[in-house]
Amino acid sequence: MAVSKKKLSDTPWNTATFLLTKHSEDFVDGHRVKIAIVGSGYSGVAVGIAILFKRLASELVLIDLNEELAKAEAEDISHAAAFLGNPKIIGTKDYSLARDATVCVITVGDKVTNRQDSSETLKENLNIFKDMIPNVCKYAPNSVLLIITAPVNILSYAAMKLSGFPPHRVVGLGTFLDSCRFQYYIAQKLGISAKAVQANIICEDGPMSVPIWSAVTVMGIKLRDINKDMGTKADPESWGELHTKVIDCDSDLIARKGYSCWGTGICAAEVVDAIVRNTCICITLSTYLKGCRHGLEKDVYMSLPCIIGRNGIQTLLRHPYTPEEQEQTEASCRAIYETQKSTLNVLE
Q1: Cα–chain-centroid distance for residue 296?
Q2: CA-CA distances (angstroms) from residue 80 to 30, 37, 39, 118, 304?
Q3: How far apart, in whole angstroms, are the C-alpha atoms of residue 75 and residue 61?
Q4: How many helices and strands in the chain, by DSSP H and E?
């Protein structure tokens, strides 16, 4: 369409008004999926990148007390946003920008390293949560909280108490990554794809985690039908060493590269995907158990096979554990509760 020189000179204009017949303020803001990530460290950025590559968010908000860091990370990713579905990516320290988020992923807090005392880290992270969780929930009261920060069971319990959310909307990443690593190591030993292996680790990550050897299968074939001693001390093939590798994996990666984040980011994005798209997948996540059905009549968060969808944890799977697995689960549950007891005064 030709535009006369007279019309241009008579009408206020700039390049945008000349080029476009309608402008952004005229557009109706349709359905948008906003994901907020609290914490812009290695894990927070890894979660954000994984979410964006899966094209789950039309708006991603990175929140950090170090606002310049959050803004820099958001800008760095935004430069290539055209190849990520062109989402809006914001870095801020303002919790109000989490308003109406579908999922709030909590990665903030010091991770346990090879040199840190875990009890001191827990104390520091609880103090961070006391201020941060109410601020996030104030602006995103209908969101699902996904807790990444370690120790994840204890901090998921703290987040549930501090948020006032129903327990099914406060989810911990739990042993999801441990289960993935377990599958990976089993697949490596067999020389097959990890996708063909079904294997779970439950309760908590670390030495008190419980590998469910009785349910390890390859395309539906139970490996204990082939090797009845699999995972036990009597196992001639020493499959139990794989569980030790899972336990040591984080400390090994930290020793070799200073941090670990990419497995966490990819697993967290899978959980976000289940919530946003209501896929109802079954994975091992940290969930609330009232009057624990695993031998301890106390309320705790622990990692079990869960169905997760739009409203968070939808249901749990009942698994017929062996007596040995049941005993290990009860011991792990007691250990979680003993650590949890020390948090109660802080939360009051």
Answers
A1: 26
A2: 23, 19, 21, 38, 38
A3: 11
A4: 11, 14
